[in-house]
Please model this.
Amino acid sequence: MTKPLTSRWLYDEHPVMFGNHPFLFSLLAVTIVGFLVIGVWALVVRTERLAVGVHDVLLERGFIAKQRVQVNRDSVRAVKVSQTILQRMLGVGDIEIFTGGDYPEIAIRGLPKPDAVRALLGKEDEGV
Model:
């Protein structure tokens, strides 16, 4: 019997809507057109995923056309977590994972528990 795919990931999250843009979410929630926008936004958010496994890190984007970036955890050189003051209060942040060079190999916005990603990748004391 095989285990589900999610059991191999130590961290597996989608970006959050309210925590990343609470004012926009609140404004849209009170309008009729806002319900449609929130529905599309929810679909977009559910199609993004960052997963940290024992041996690799996976960024997956897309609903119809998929984009997957997978890097070996041993090749990660730095993890940058950026948070505004509001994001810190709501427990979300933007994550950039560098494997070499000046540009991040993986970048994703609005993830919950961004410091957990940095801790899992063993880059707690490092900066970019």
Q: What stands out?
A: The mean pLDDT is 84. Residues 5-120 form a domain with the PH-domain like fold (CATH 2.30.29). The radius of gyration is 16 Å. The beta strands are 9-13, 48-53, 56-61, 67-72, 78-82, 92-98, 106-112.
